[in-house]
Structures are given as structure tokens and as C-alpha cells.
Write a structure and sequence with these properties.
Number of strands: 10
Order of helices and strands: HHEHEEEHEHEEEHEHEHHHHHH
Distance between the termini: 27 Å
Helix content: 40-55%
Structural class: alpha+beta
Length: about 450
């Protein structure tokens, strides 16, 4: 009661800080919302073991280069050279698995390839597809570290996976098509007329194509051979490989550059470096704007917090100085520095809570009209055909709102109390005689 009475007596001085907190609460909620979504998406597991995973980059000479050899430019020659390069990587003693992946089938790659899948009842799911070439022992799920939903172990595809035209699907795809993740052995179709049946060989954990986004329904399929188009071969089929457990990456990279890389320039192909999965992901996040978006949101949030901090500190500095006589009297009557500080902090907390509660009324109205923030989508309009996965809190309205509201309140309250504590501590430590003398 004393605290509320004190706030009412100081209502004129509190009005400006109350208005500031009201505006800051709404603004800060809007800033934290996209930060929450992007951060929550990034924290979703990749879906596979990405440690020791590399992408090999090949360049390709054309007739604009002096090194171009027209005699080596036929489809057959290019194919032989390309598979020879794959073989050189696969036979490295440190390499566990290699994948000849299609251009759009590498995590964090710039391409994206989608299609429709149907079940026997013609229920349709739009899926992303990863395609790989099965030549030279290429195995995409093994190279990507995908794991079986039932066993948790790395997927072991049947030896005739490509020949039997089988597919592997993600857990989300299986749930959407069959209502269960135990879908191995079932049949999916590439058309609603059920003319293209494909047996499901395995179901793997949801796998993220983009590190900063949520997993999309995914299907993996193998092709028997590379596309024999010389001008596209190096671009369309990046070589992805993974190291065996226990291999020292630094030692491997040094040996690879010295002993293996010189043998990877064959025909019109030339070795153009390699990157780890983490390096490739960081580059993609920067080029797609995700990194800059996060930086912008953090900058806006920091600016809002600075304004709140300065406003609270300035206001309570003035209030503390104006109430030096009251502080001096209370100190002379035995009130401790801590007790006085706690009273001022309590006043600040009440102001923050009431102002934030009113700001939430505006937030609720805004969200009901404009919706929540969404993470950057690299697949654009395709996401509108897919219901957000309710397994993630950021996709459920009530948990989403509560998480952002709680995070914003904590940040706002801590900032305001810090801005209050500094001037109040200074005023409360003033000797009672000195405070009363000045008054």
C-alpha cells in the first residue's frame, strides 16, 4: 500500500516514464518477435550428424579459358573425368562416405527442388527432393549423417535402392502421408493416378535444408548415372563427403591439399577448394540475408534498450534527487540503504508491469491483424501450401505469444531496474545529515 501511495503521489513525474515504457514495450515486443523465430529455427536440430562433412568445389573450363581442351569436352570424356575425381575422393583412407548430389540437394545450397507425393488414398504432400547419383558408391543419406527414425542409427539403404526406384522419406513426410513414422515398406506415388509407385525404403529424422529455417517434408531418391551435359556436369553435381569418426580434420585438410587436390584437376575440370558444412552454412546465411536480418533486429533491440535505460536512469535520477529530504529522514530513522533501494526498485517494477500490460493490448490487436513474425523463407511461395509443423512452439500461436511476451518482459524489466538502481544507490548512500542539510 505504501508503494502504491508513493506512486500516486508522484504521478506527474511518473507519467512521462510510463508513456515511455508503454511505447518501448510495444516496440521491443515487435523487435524480439522475429529474433525469437529465427533463433528458435536455428536451434532445431539439423537432423543428421554434420561433423566432418565437406563439400568439394569443382571449376570447369570453357572456351573462354586458355586451359580449355576441346578434345576433352565430349559428354563421355567429361563423365569419365568426373567419376575419376569422385573415386579419388572416395578412396581417401579418412573418408567414410561420398555423395554425388544434385545441385539442389545439398544443405544450405542455393537451389531447391520440390514435387508432389501421394498415398494410395490420393492424399498429397508437397515435398522437397534430394537426388543423388548412385555411381562410385555414392550414398547421400550416409554422407549427410541421416538417421533412421526407428533405430536412431545411420540409414543403410538397400544395395539395389537405385535399381528398384525406391525412395527414403523424412518423418514429417511419413506423418503427413500415412499418419505414422513407421512407413518403411509402404508405397508412395508421384502422381494422383497411381501410375508411378515407389516403395519407401527408410524413414529418417526431419532434415533441415537451411540452417536458419524449419525442416520441410523431404524425399531422397537415387539416379543411376550423371546427366551427360558437359557444360553443366561440374555445376550440377557437387561432391559431398564425410570423414570417419576420430579423424583429425586439420591433419586431413593439410594432407588433402598436398597429396589429393593436385590429382583432382582432370580434363576440363579443376579443383576449386572445399568447405566444411559449417563454413558453407555461414556463407549461405550471409548471402541470403538471414545474418543481416538478425544483426538488424539485434541493433533495433539494443537501441530500444538503450533508450529505456537512459530514460529510466534519467527519470529516477531526478526523482531520487527530488526526494533526498525524504531519503534523509528515512535514513535518520534507521532505514537501510537496501530497504530504500528496494522501494524504488519496487516502484519501477510496478510501472514496468502496468505499462507493459497495456502495451500488450496493442500487441494483441496488431498480431491479430498482421500475424506473427516469420523467419526468412528461401522457398518463397511454396511454404504457403504447407501447414506449419505444430511440433515447434514458434508455430503455435499461444506458446509463440507467451514466449515472446515473457522474453520481452524480462528484458524490459531488467533494463528498467538497472536504470533505476544506479541513481537510487547513489542517493540512498548519502549521509542523512548531508541530505537534510542540503534541503
Amino acid at each position: 500500500m505504501i508503494l502504491l501511495h508513493q506512486l500516486w503521489n508522484q504521478r506527474r513525474q511518473n507519467l512521462w516514464i510510463f508513456i515511455e515504457l508503454l511505447i518501448a514495450g510495444f516496440f521491443l515486443w515487435m523487435v524480439i518477435d522475429p529474433i525469437y523465430v529465427l533463433t528458435a529455427n536455428r536451434l532445431i536440430p539439423q537432423g543428421g550428424d554434420t561433423r566432418g562433412m565437406y563439400v568439394l568445389q569443382l571449376g570447369q573450363y570453357d572456351n573462354s579459358f586458355a586451359q580449355y581442351d576441346a578434345a576433352q569436352d565430349s559428354a563421355g570424356q567429361m563423365r569419365r573425368h568426373y567419376l575419376s575425381i569422385v573415386r579419388a575422393v572416395r578412396t581417401c583412407p579418412e573418408v567414410e562416405a561420398v555423395s554425388i548430389a544434385a545441385f539442389s540437394s545439398f544443405p544450405n545450397g542455393m537451389g531447391w527442388n520440390g514435387m508432389q507425393l501421394f498415398n494410395a488414398d490420393t492424399a498429397m504432400v508437397h515435398v522437397q527432393q534430394y537426388r543423388f547419383v548412385s555411381a562410385e558408391g555414392s550414398d547421400l543419406p550416409l554422407a549427410y549423417g541421416m538417421r533412421d527414425v526407428r533405430t536412431g542409427e545411420r540409414i543403410q539403404l538397400p544395395a539395389d535402392f537405385a535399381q528398384r526406384d525406391m525412395v527414403a522419406i523424412s518423418e514429417r513426410t511419413a506423418l503427413d502421408l500415412f499418419g505414422t513414422a513407421d512407413a518403411a515398406g509402404r508405397t508412395v506415388y508421384f502422381d494422383s493416378d497411381h501410375q508411378q509407385p515407389h516403395e519407401v525404403a527408410a524413414v529418417f529424422h526431419n532434415y533441415k535444408h537451411y540452417t536458419s529455417e524449419q525442416p520441410y517434408p523431404l524425399m531422397v531418391k537415387a539416379d543411376a548415372d550423371v546427366m551427360e551435359i558437359p557444360s553443366l556436369m561440374g555445376l550440377m553435381y557437387p561432391i559431398v563427403f564425410r570423414l570417419k569418426d576420430g579423424v583429425d580434420p586439420d591433419a586431413f585438410e593439410a594432407r588433402f591439399q598436398e597429396e589429393v587436390a593436385p590429382h583432382l584437376s582432370q580434363g576440363n575440370f579443376f579443383y576449386d577448394g572445399m568447405q566444411t558444412f559449417a563454413e558453407y552454412g555461414r556463407r549461405q546465411a550471409l548471402s541470403s540475408g538471414i545474418t543481416n536480418k538478425l544483426r538488424l533486429q539485434y541493433a533495433l533491440g539494443g537501441f530500444a534498450l538503450l533508450c529505456i535505460f537512459l530514460g529510466m536512469a534519467g527519470t529516477f535520477w531526478i526523482r531520487a534527487n527530488a526526494r533526498r529530504e525524504e531519503i534523509g529522514i528515512r535514513r535518520s530513522m534507521g532505514a537501510s540503504v537496501g530497504r530504500i533501494t528496494r522501494q524504488f526498485l519496487g516502484e519501477g517494477a510496478v510501472l514496468v508491469t502496468v505499462a507493459y500490460a497495456l502495451a500488450l493490448l496493442v500487441v494483441v490487436n496488431y498480431v491479430s491483424v498482421a500475424g506473427f513474425a516469420e523467419g526468412i523463407s528461401a522457398i518463397g511461395h511454396l511454404t504457403k501450401d504447407l501447414a506449419p509443423d505444430p511440433a515447434y512452439a514458434q508455430n503455435r500461436p499461444v506458446p509463440h505469444f507467451l514466449w515472446v511476451t515473457a522474453l520481452t518482459y524480462v528484458v524490459l524489466l531488467l533494463t528498467a531496474l538497472t536504470g533505476t538502481w544506479i541513481p537510487v544507490q547513489r542517493a540512498a548512500r548519502t549521509l542523512p545529515v548531508e541530505a537534510l542539510h542540503e534541503e
